[in-house]
C-alpha cells in the first residue's frame, strides 16, 4: 500500500513539473511575440513565475492559474515590466508597462 501511495506522489510530481515547464515555454513564446509586435526587446529572453494558485476557468473547471513576469526595453536605456496571466494552457491576459518610444 505504501508503494502505491509513493508511486502516486511521484507521478503527480512528475506531471506538475512537465506541466509547469510546458506552460512556461508557452508564456515565453507569447512574451517574445508581444515584444516583437510592440517593437521592443524582451530582456534576458525569459519569463519568471510570480504567482500560482487554483482558479476556475470559463467552463467552471478547476485549473492552475499562473502569473509570469517579464522585462523589456524600448530604447535600451530603461527596463519595463510586463505580465502574462495563464489559466491552464490558455493565455488569459497580457499587460505591459507604458514605455518610451525611440
The number of helical elements comes to 1
β-strand percent reads: 35-45%
Question: Could you tell me the number of beta strands?
Answer: 5
The H/E string reads HEEEEE
**Through-space gap between termini:** 64 Å
Task: Please give a handful of descriptors for the protein shown.
102 residues, five-stranded antiparallel beta sheet, 5 strands, elongated
What does this structure look like?
The protein has one domain. The longest helix is centred in the N-terminal third of the chain and has 36 residues, at 2-37. The N and C termini lie far apart (64 Å). Helices cover 35% and strands 37% of the residues. The model has no long low-confidence stretch (mean pLDDT 94). It is elongated. Strands 1, 2, 3, 4 and 5 form a five-stranded antiparallel beta sheet that branches. With 102 residues, the chain is α+β, with helices and mostly antiparallel strands.
Summarize the structure.
With 102 residues, this protein is α+β, with helices and mostly antiparallel strands. It is built from 1 helix and 5 strands; from the N terminus they run αβββββ.
